[in-house]
From TrEMBL:
Superkingdom assignment: Bacteria
Stretch forming the signal peptide: 1-22
Designated name of the protein: Uncharacterized protein
Region span, Disordered: 24-50
UniProt keyword list: Signal
Length: 304
């Protein structure tokens, strides 16, 4: 996290008056979706690609702290089933689960995976899954699921079935791309999810945000300060200045030891939620930072 923001938050809190009114925010929404892409020769997906949501399927979820099963009724006689399980004796936690075997028959320390549908299933499974988010209540009942998977049926070199399963999950991710002459991104691009990365947010609707990401050998920070341009409004595109002494908003995207002291750009909030005191609890935003002739663009989702 950039140290400058912590001090700036304190200064801004005493220097900004609350506005008479603010635009009604577009609040975060939970997402439920099952999508897959099947390679030719895969006996489960039959070479198809499909997407199911509550608009065209009914979701049923079972499980506990060690496994979760998401079933979908997609029409008369049509049923899909996705099961993700922790290794024996462990609890299911967000991370990359490799060397998965058929659940619940996995051996040793292998995690469990089983995806079937329309009466088709695998006797043996080679696969992996990335569990981005998984929460249960005190009794172990699933509250939300966010995962992606790859499954091969009957042989390690069989055609793959790849997919994503979400149930009652708020989006949590960071995606970026950069020009080759951008000194911060240096031409790189990437996407971070909860299976590999940790996310942290600090911010207030009258002051701005700091969004930090750490994972996959990368550390990124997106620091947006409103200064006198508050409050934060959904749908508004803020044009940022490189003059930190002005009343205009500033944007500083830094990462892996690199930053730009003279950056300009834009910052657009697409979803926002805050507590009664103005502390931001969820946010989604797009940014564009220009440093010299190079540009870095990104999208952040923090439970929104």
């Amino acid at each position: 996290m950039a140290l400058g923001l912590v001090a700036a938050f304190g200064a801004l809190a005493g220097g900004l008056a609350a506005p008479a009114h603010a635009a009604a925010p577009e609040t975060p929404e939970r997402v439920s979706e099952f999508s897959f892409t099947s390679a030719e020769g895969d006996p489960i997906g039959m070479g198809r690609s499909e997407t199911y949501t509550p608009d065209n399927a009914t979701f049923e979820v079972y499980g506990n702290k060690t496994y979760v099963r998401v079933g979908l009724n997609t029409g008369p006689g049509d049923w899909w089933d996705v099961t993700l399980g922790a290794p024996q004796g462990e609890e299911l936690e967000p991370r990359v689960h490799r060397e998965a075997e058929r659940h619940p028959f996995q051996t040793g320390r292998s995690p469990g995976l089983s995806v079937g549908g329309e009466g088709r299933g695998c006797n043996e499974i080679w696969g992996s899954f990335e569990l981005n988010q998984y929460e249960t209540d005190a009794e172990g009942n699933p509250l939300l699921v966010d995962a992606s998977f790859e499954q091969r049926c009957e042989a390690a070199d069989a055609p793959p079935l790849k997919g994503r399963i979400l149930w009652q999950a708020y989006p949590l991710s960071y995606t970026y791309e950069s020009d080759p002459d951008d000194p911060v991104g240096q031409g790189m691009s990437g996407t971070h999810y909860g299976a590999t990365s940790l996310f942290k947010l600090q911010g207030r609707t009258t002051e701005g945000i700091v969004f930090d990401v750490s994972g996959k050998r990368e550390d990124w920070s997106v620091e947006f300060l409103l200064h006198a341009a508050g409050p934060l409004e959904v749908g508004h595109t803020y044009r940022t200045t490189d003059d930190i002494t002005s009343d205009d908003p500033t944007l500083m995207v830094s990462g892996n030891g690199r930053a730009c002291s003279g950056a300009t750009g834009t910052f657009t909030v697409t979803k926002l939620e805050a507590d009664p005191d103005g502390a931001i609890t969820a946010v989604a935003a797009d940014y564009e930072q220009k440093c010299g002739t190079g540009v870095m663009r990104g999208t952040l989702h923090y439970y929104a």
